[in-house]
Specification:
- This protein has 4 domains: 74 residues, no CATH class; 91 residues, Pdz3 Domain (Roll); 222 residues, 2-enoyl-CoA Hydratase, Chain A, domain 1, CATH 3.90.226.10; 98 residues.
- By secondary structure, it is of the alpha+beta class.
- It is built from 19 helices and 21 strands.
- The chain starts with a helix and ends with a helix.
- The chain is 39% helix and 20% strand.
- The relative contact order is 0.09.
- Strands 3, 4, 5, 6, 7 and 8 form a 6-stranded antiparallel sheet that branches. Strands 10-11-12-15-16-21 form a 6-stranded mixed sheet, sandwiched between helices. Strands 1, 13, 14, 17 and 18 form a 5-stranded antiparallel sheet that branches.
- Strand 7 and strand 8 form a beta hairpin.
- Belongs to the peptidase S41A family.
Length: 532
C-alpha cells in the first residue's frame, strides 16, 4: 500500500470533522481541479462534507459520521482533548456546575418503581414530607412504574422548570392508601465535598470528589465548621479526585498560602505565560495541613498538591498522582455539542510540569495504572521512576520531581486487603446498597431513634446480616461466593451503606475511614508533630 493510500482514512476523517467547525456555502459550479488547488484548507474540508451530504450514493447520517470522526481526530491530539455530544451536554454541565433542578431525592429503581433512598436534607421533597422507603408511583397523573420504564424515563417525568410544582402519588409501607404530595422543583446541589468531620480533637478532615463550580463554597463552609470545632490541622483528601475547574483549585489553595505566593503558571503554544498568585484572603495560612493523594488524583487535584508542596506548605501523603498537566477549554461547536480542547500546559511554582508522556498513544497512556502495579510502585516508593533532569528544589531545599505526577512526601502503599476481586466487584455492582435498602425496608422504625454518632461509633452489623447478604448475592449471580476471608470488610461496607441511607452527609466516609491505612498514617503524623 502506498503512503497516500495508507493515510487516506485519517485525511478523510479530519476533513469530515473539520467541516463541522467551519460551516458556509458550497459553490458547485467550481471545477474539481480548482477545488483542490486554489481554496483554503477550510474551504476544501467544508466542500467535502457538503459533497457527502448532497452527492454520496447512499443516504448517510452525517451527524453520526461526524461524531465518530471528531472523536478520532481528538484521539490523535492528546488524551484529554474530548468531544461532548449534544445529548451528553446537560448531564456534563450539571455535574460541573454543581447543581440541577429537581425534587431532591436520591433513589434507585426497585421492582419497576422509583424507591426513595433518602430525601435530600433541606430539599423540596424533605420539606413536603417524603421519606426514605417511599415509592413514587405517579407524577402529575403519569405512571412511574412498570417494566417498560427506564431510569431516564422516570427522571424526565420528575424534571421541570425551577419553581414549578409536581403532584406525586406515593406508596408508603404501613399506610392503607396512597399518599399525595405536591413538591416545588428547586435547585438541588450535587455535592463535591463528600465528608467533613473531626478525626481527632485538633485534626479536621475534608474530602473533595471533584472541582465543580460549587466546590469552593462547599469547601469553605466545611472548613469554617471545622475551625469552629477547634481544628488547628486539616487533612484534605483528594484521593480519586479526577479534577475539574482550574480556578476553583486556585481558590482552595489560596486558603492555605500567604499573599503573593505563586500557585501555578500556564503556558500556551505561543509561549504566553500567565501566573496565578495567592491573595490575602486565606483562613488557614498558619494551620498544619496534610493532603492525601493517590494514583487517581488528577488535574486540579495535582494543582492543589503541587502548589502546596512547592511552597513548602503542609505534607503530601499517599502515592504518586495521575500525572495530568494539561489545561482544557470548553468550546461550543454550534449544534449543542462541544469540545474540550487542550490549550495550554500548567506548571507548579518551582517550574515543573507533571504531565506524563503520551507519545506512545492513548492506549499506552491509559495502561499506566497497570504498569505501576507491575513495576511495584504502588507498594514500594523506591520503585517510583524519577529523572535527575526533572529535579527541582523548593524554597526550603526539598527536592521534587516533574515528568509524571506529584510524588508524595510520605508514601503509603496501596491497601492490598481491599484489592480482592470479590470486594471490588461488590463495591461496583451496587449489590451492597440494594441489599441495605431491602433490609431497611423490613423495619425502618428499628433505626429511627439511633443518633448518627451513636450509630457510627457503636452499631455492629450482625454475622447473620452478612450471611443474608451472601445469599442475596449468590441468588442474583448464580454463584457460590463466600465471605469467610473478608468477613470484617463486608461488615464495614454494609454498615457504611446503612449509615449513608439513614443519615447521608458523609456518614459513609466516616465509617469507611475507620480502617483506612492512609487516614491512620495522617493521624500518626499529626500526633508525632505534637510530641516534637
Amino acid at each position: 500500500m502506498s503512503n497516500n493510500k495508507k493515510y487516506l482514512p485519517l485525511i478523510l476523517g479530519v476533513a469530515i470533522a473539520a467541516g463541522i467547525f467551519i460551516g458556509g456555502k458550497l459553490n458547485f459550479s467550481d471545477s474539481p481541479d480548482r477545488l483542490f488547488s486554489t481554496n483554503s484548507k477550510k474551504d476544501k474540508l467544508n466542500r467535502l462534507i457538503d459533497y457527502i451530504d448532497y452527492d454520496y450514493v447512499d443516504d448517510i447520517n452525517t451527524d453520526s459520521i461526524v461524531d465518530v470522526t471528531v472523536n478520532g481526530i481528538l484521539e490523535n491530539l492528546d488524551p484529554h482533548s474530548v468531544y461532548i455530544p449534544k445529548e451528553d451536554m446537560q448531564r456534563v454541565s450539571e455535574n460541573m456546575k454543581g447543581d440541577f433542578i429537581g425534587i431532591g431525592v436520591s433513589f434507585y429503581p426497585f421492582r419497576d418503581s422509583i424507591a426513595v433512598i433518602r430525601a435530600i436534607e433541606g430539599g423540596p421533597s424533605e420539606k413536603a414530607g417524603i421519606k426514605g422507603g417511599d415509592r413514587i408511583l405517579m407524577a402529575d397523573g403519569d405512571t412511574l412504574f412498570g417494566a417498560k420504564l427506564n431510569n431516564s424515563d422516570m427522571v424526565d417525568k420528575l424534571k421541570g422548570p425551577e419553581n414549578t410544582k409536581v403532584r406525586l402519588k406515593v406508596y408508603r409501607k404501613g399506610e392503607s392508601k396512597l399518599l399525595d404530595f405536591t413538591v416545588k422543583r428547586s435547585t438541588i446541589p450535587i455535592k463535591s465535598v463528600d465528608a467533613s468531620y473531626m478525626l481527632t480533637e485538633k485534626l479536621g478532615y475534608i474530602k473533595i470528589n471533584r472541582f465543580a463550580e460549587s466546590t469552593y463554597k462547599e469547601f469553605k463552609k466545611a472548613l469554617d465548621k471545622l475551625l469552629d470545632k477547634g481544628a488547628t490541622e486539616i487533612a484534605l483528601d483528594l484521593r480519586d479526585n479526577p479534577g475539574g475547574f482550574l480556578g476553583i483549585a486556585e481558590q482552595i489553595v489560596d486558603e492555605f498560602l500567604e499573599d503573593e505566593k505563586l500557585i501555578l503558571f500556564t503556558k500556551n503554544k505561543r509561549g504566553h505565560i500567565e501566573k496565578n498568585y495567592a491573595t490575602s484572603k486565606g483562613d488557614f495560612e498558619d494551620g498544619k495541613l496534610f493532603v492525601l493523594i493517590n494514583e487517581n488524583s488528577a488535574s486540579a487535584s495535582e494543582i492543589v498538591a503541587g502548589a502546596l508542596q512547592d511552597n513548602d506548605k503542609g505534607t503530601i501523603v499517599g502515592r504518586r498522582s495521575y500525572g495530568k498537566g494539561l489545561v482544557q477549554r470548553e468550546m461550543d461547536l454550534g449544534d449543542g455539542s462541544a469540545v474540550r480542547l487542550t490549550v495550554s500546559r500548567y506548571y507548579t511554582p518551582t517550574g515543573r510540569s507533571i504531565q506524563r508522556s503520551y507519545d506512545k498513544g492513548n492506549d499506552d497512556y491509559y495502561h499506566d495504572y497497570f504498569d505501576r502495579i507491575e513495576s511495584g510502585e504502588l507498594f514500594d516508593s523506591d520503585k517510583i521512576k524519577v529523572a535527575d533532569s526533572l529535579k527541582f528544589t523548593t524554597p526550603k531545599g526539598k527536592v521534587v520531581y516533574g515528568g509524571g505526577g506529584i510524588i508524595p512526601d510520605v508514601f503509603v502503599p496501596i491497601d492490598t486487603s481491599l484489592q480482592n476481586e470479590t470486594l471490588i466487584f461488590l463495591q461496583r455492582s451496587g449489590f451492597i446498597s440494594n441489599f441495605v435498602f431491602v433490609e431497611l425496608d423490613k423495619d425502618r422504625d428499628a433505626y429511627s431513634n439511633i443518633p448518627r454518632e451513636d450509630f457510627i461509633n457503636n452499631y455492629t452489623v450482625s454475622d447473620e446480616m452478612v450471611f443474608d447478604f451472601q445469599d442475596y448475592v449468590n441468588l442474583r449471580t448464580n454463584t457460590k461466593i463466600t465471605f469467610v476471608a473478608y468477613h470484617d470488610e463486608v461488615k464495614q461496607y454494609i454498615k457504611a451503606a446503612l449509615a449513608d441511607q439513614l443519615y447521608g452527609d458523609g456518614a459513609f466516609e466516616q465509617i469507611i475511614n475507620q480502617n483506612d491505612i492512609m487516614i491512620d498514617e495522617v493521624i500518626e503524623l499529626s500526633a508525632a508533630t505534637e510530641k516534637l
